[in-house]
Amino acid sequence: MILFFLYLLFEIEEPIIGNIKYPESKLKLDIDKRVVAVLKVKMEVNEEGKVEKFEYISSENIEKDKIDYFFNFFKEQFLNKKIKPMKKDGKPIPCTFIYSFSWILYYPPPEVHYYGRDGKEKKFFLKTIKGKEEEIEVYEKNLEEKAKNLIKSYGLSIFSADRITYFYPLFFKEIKYFHIEIMDFIGHFKKTYNKYLKEEINYEHKIFLFPDKKTLSKFLKEEDFPFWADGLYIGPLKLIFTLLPVEKKYLDVLLHEEAHFLINNLLFENKNMPLFLREGFAENLLYSYKKEIYGKEEMIRWEEYKKILKKEKNKKEILVYLFFFDPEGEKSEKETKRFYAFSWAFLEFISKEENFSNFIIEMKKEGFSKEIFENNFGNWEKIEKKFREFIKNY
Question: In this predicted model, what pLDDT tens digit does every residue of 208-228 receive, in sequence order?
Answer without folding.
Answer: 999 999 999 999 888 878 778
